[in-house]
Write a structure and sequence with these properties.
This protein has 441 residues and is of the alpha/beta class. It has 17 helices and 10 strands. It is 46% helix and 16% strand. The protein has a 5-stranded parallel beta sheet with strand order 2-1-3-4-5, with helices on both faces. A 5-stranded parallel beta sheet has the order 7-6-8-9-10. It is globular, with a radius of gyration of 25 Å.
């Protein structure tokens, strides 16, 4: 079997994720592994895809290998997938699998992103392995790798793969400007962070209508025009210094021109089931702030051009992104009414300082970060100080009073004589604090 490894890490051979591939090469000498370090050499492939297409055409199985960056794959891999699709290469009948490493922060959305794009290209998707960064160093982790690869090999031999979901295609008509500009009030300037390519008139018109409907001033930052030197390198230089290793001054621009505003609107046209590689580069480069939720409390909104209703994974990313960051998601606008509703809801959120508690997507995500930063606090000093200052270290084992109460409740519940005597008094006791709050309301 011939496998083309599409390695999305910008670190190339030095990628921790790629070490799992090297392990497979040792364990399965009969399998031919051809590696494309697309994350490291993306500039080269933007100029010439010939070498990559030869390796891809020669392979029976494509193995996507990458670290999870900001809910999905690194921007460099996003860009390579764009190039694969643009090349017109026929990949129908080939198989694909994926290996990722992460701390399991939204690895599900990253895997689904690759799966969806495989379906687009007619590739038979056979599954993925999501490993912790240290798993290969453990016996159980190595066992997981071989179990996974044996299953991939078996599925390919039996032609077993994930079915392509049936979707109702909803053609999206070009958006035309139709909202007359309203008079503007002072304050609450919005920044619109847009992935606005030349010729994308629908998105440009949607942004213009939002600016007309929004009762305050707004300013567009077009990421297509920003002189990025490249995508995040995962070098962790910023973890120590707070400064990005690139010299394009994006970290300063981000903090001064975007994160200093009262609210942020993200605007993009759906591309390859995501926000496009350019906006993904922006997301990844925000790692100059580490794991610090520096825009916490700031309301977010989205202007999205495309069939958003059919993009359940992208919807999950948009919702999770806001909840993890502690941002009130005002509205995702996809049409004229949505744009008007977004403008009005953003005005209300700013004037009333609306914040809402996170649900599972935010609570679960932040608990992963909490444990990660506490363990790595010796290196991630800025993150550690931020988490301490904001009370993010809410470890349950430190709530000794609650633990003792629950032990007492457990003793009562397990004693049938006490239970019989108390009857409904336990429920009444649990409700007493709530009754007091309601009486004092």
């Amino acid at each position: 079997m011939r496998v083309c490894v599409i390695s999305g890490s910008p670190k190339g051979d030095n990628s921790i994720t790629y070490q799992t591939v090297l392990y497979l090469q040792k364990k399965y000498p009969d399998v031919i592994f051809d590696t494309l370090h697309v994350g490291q050499k993306i500039r080269q492939y933007e100029k010439d895809m010939t070498e990559a297409l030869v390796a891809i055409r020669s392979a029976e199985v494509l193995l996507f290998c990458y670290p999870v960056y900001t809910f999905i794959a690194p921007s460099q891999l996003h860009r390579f997938i764009e190039l694969m699709k643009a090349s017109g290469v026929d990949l129908s009948g080939k198989y694909a699998a994926q290996i990722t490493t992460s701390k399991h922060f939204y690895d599900t959305t990253a895997h689904k992103y690759i799966e969806e794009n495989c379906h687009d290209m007619g590739i038979k998707y056979v599954g993925g392995l999501s490993a912790d960064m240290d798993d290969l160093l453990t016996e159980s982790g190595r066992a997981d790798v071989t179990t996974f690869w044996d299953m991939v090999t078996w599925k390919v031999s039996c032609d077993i793969y994930e079915p392509v979901p049936k979707r109702t295609v909803n053609p999206v008509a070009p958006y035309e400007k139709s909202i007359q500009p309203a008079s503007k009030k002072s304050g609450n300037e919005a920044v619109i962070v847009a992935n606005l390519a030349e010729g994308d008139t629908s998105l440009a018109n949607m942004i213009a209508d939002f600016q007309a409907a929004y009762p305050y001033e707004s300013r567009v930052v077009n990421l297509v025009e920003y002189p990025f030197m490249g995508g995040c390198l995962g070098c962790f230089n910023c973890a120590v210094t707070g400064k990005c290793i690139y010299k394009d001054k994006f970290d300063e621009f981000l903090r001064q021109e975007i994160q200093s505003k009262t609210c942020i609107i993200y605007a993009f046209t759906i591309s390859d089931h995501s926000m496009g590689s350019r906006m993904k580069m922006y997301d990844d480069r925000q790692f100059c702030n580490g794991h610090r939720t520096v825009t916490m409390g700031m309301p977010f909104g989205y202007i999205i051009n495309g069939d958003y209703d059919n993009e359940s994974n992208l919807q999950l990313i948009v919702e999770g992104r806001a909840q993890v960051g502690g941002n009130f998601l005002t509205k995702v606008a996809t049409d004229k009414k949505g744009i008007i509703d977004l403008a009005n809801t953003m005005e209300y959120a700013l004037e009333h300082k609306v914040q809402q508690p996170a649900m599972f997507l935010g609570v679960g995500g932040m608990k992963i970060f909490r444990d990660l930063i506490y363990i790595m606090r010796g290196m991630m000093k800025a993150d550690h100080e931020f988490y301490k200052a904001h009370g993010f270290y809410d470890f349950p084992q430190k709530q000794k009073g609650t633990i003792l109460k629950m032990q007492l409740v457990g003793l009562i519940i397990n004693n049938k004589k006490i239970q019989k005597k108390m009857g409904n008094k336990m429920t009444e006791g649990m409700l007493m604090p709530y009754k007091k709050v309601i009486e004092e309301a």
